[in-house]
Amino acid sequence: MASTSERILEVRDLVKHFPLTQGIVVKRQIGAIKAVDGVSFDLHKGETLGIVGESGCGKSTLAKVLMALERPTSGSVKINGRDIAHAKGGELKRMRRNIQMVMQDPYTSLNPRMTVGDIIGEPYEIHTEVAPKGDRRTKVQELLEVVGLNPDHINRYPHQFSGGQRQRIGIARGLALQPEIIVCDEPVSALDVSIQAQVINLLERLQNEFDLAYIFIAHDLSVVRHISDRVGVMYLGKFVELGKDTEIYDRPAHPYTQALLSAVPVPDPDGREQRERIILQGDPPSPANPPSGCRFRTRCWKAQEICAEEEPLLQIRPGTAHESACHFAETHDVVHVG
Amino acid sequence: MKKTSADVLPGLSEGGAPGDHPLLAVDNLHVEFQTRAGVVRAVNGVSYTVGPGETLAVLGESGSGKSVTAQAIMGILDMPPAVIPKGEIRFKGTNLLKLSEEARTQVRGQRIAMIFQDALSALNPVFTVGWQISEMFRVHRGMSKADGLKKAIELMDRVRIPAARQRVHDYPHQFSGGMRQRIMIAMSIALDPEVLIADEPTTALDVTVQAQIMELLAELQRESRMGLILITHDLGVVADVADKIAVMYAGRIVENAPVHDIYKGPAHPYTKGLLESIPRVDLKGHELYAIKGLPPNLLDLPTGCAFHPRCPYRQDNCVTDAPPLHEVSGTRNSACHYWREVLDGEHQ
Fold first, then answer.
1. B208 with A279: Cβ contact below 8 A
2. Mapping DSSP to helix (H, G, I), strand (E, B) and coil, where does residue A159 land?
3. What is the pLDDT of residues B83-118, one digit of tens each?
4. Cβ atoms of residues B112 and B94 within 8 Å
5. Which residue segments constitute the domains of chain B, with CATH numbers given?
6. Residues 172-211 of B with CB under 8 A from A
7. ipTM
8. Residues of chain A contacting B290 with CB distance shorter than 8 Å
9. What is the pLDDT of residues A112-136, one digit of tens each?
């Protein structure tokens, strides 16, 4: 469905390195944390791209670069054909209207001294053309209603709301400027189980209503599967596999994806003794000094000499229908999530 | 000379487990917190038992009282503001709540140990991990620094921390999240406890690391036949490791059952709602089932059944009468007036 509609986000060879320096008076660069190291993907109107990976793999840095909160070291982020990563001044401001963010922690991402009305209406202070001053209150009340909150609570403070309600406030703020793209960085992981489903349903309803495109970053693989049209699996700053949700979950081709999926506990005790489980040993290597060749080879059971010498590119491999970055890619049905 | 626990707890001599007593039994426990805003009833009559080698999963959302119950078992609640007005916690038949603080100290860490959720804040940042692990041996066993450190290296090997001999001198911040959790586990199993309480041991970790830690815990449990109380909100983890489950809501157990029974057919609407709200493959593109409303305010619990404002099975008597823990089968209970309808899957 997505490939036919128009492409609104085009990310090409995106790289973000954070310099490591030594010395107090004379700073010398001694290396770099390669947080994002060559990421390319497209996003279409109304589509959801899920991004999964372990902590430290660069998911959140990627989100920040997409939002133009960090400048990339190289590469481009084109929204409707214009590069936000190199835009400045008024142009950057106009482009930012189109890409908004919902943060992970609804307890720290809302200013406790501002009323809900001020929080949701703050984007209008910056982008005055969206809502003239007189209209703002009505606009905010409409938004509260859209996300399922009582419009009469516009003068309340964040502490008067529960976690799930606060996340709704965060979503309302993200919607205020009528963006086409919303980046959701772990939007439900801080919420209770019974509340997560409410927020996921809300995000899906809003997507249908406003034809939004989501970048959905999460570590909960069953939530990502539920909401995503396509999924990208990240490891040490790179995509190791990218494809349609059914492809990734039912026919994963990269060993890392297979290990990741098999590690997800299945909420069904039947047959738990027989379940195949690939347990990765150790922790991911440091992004300051990633292994040569394939970055996953130090934890991979398929690793051969070629893996240390030649970096596998993200491409469609024989026998698979989606892109993966492994010399020995081979579809393998592991355990099903959810 | 250090006293051994046998001196203080005559009924608890090593190996001689008294007859019919379960390893650990929590019986009708109540815990309240006196706050300025009023009395918070965090735990309202919780009962469960754990046997040797058994894994009990305590499932619940934040504020359901699952951690407070664990803290009461360990005797690490701040009292005041916490008060335990009613109930017993029996370890091999001895009521821990009646013991002196000195006797309690002998049980804590040695017989019953605990792993905390956030290893970074549970470990002391200004001491090396070797020092913190060996503290168990210095304090409880009266060992010298050198012997304690040797023991610490052994334990770090046992929880599979690579290069234990070198890393024993490192500080907590020099370890990754998974490795820190291994250090917590090493500390907790140092003195071969009979009961281990794990309070959300993997919540802050990635799934790959979570799988490593859960495997390690299962292995240690097989070796030593510890009773394990696993506190969690993750229905996947529970399905993987638990023998039986106690589901908590608003400080009460609303359902307890062997693990297979619950996943086959829950007998309480709350359990049912939790299970149905998990995203499943066949529900893709559909709306998820969501339990409506919000978790209850513990300062002002709803009348009758605490779950009634959110319950699809609600009848008039749910608002007025708190349901007792009905017996569903010999090993299973549900605190719902209409457990039969819930179990049959009838929707109201």
1. yes
2. helix
3. 898 899 999 888 888 888 888 888 888 899 999 888
4. no
5. 22-242 (3.40.50.300), 266-344 (no CATH)
6. 176-179, 206-211
7. 0.77
8. 194, 197-198, 201
9. 999 999 999 999 988 888 888 888 8
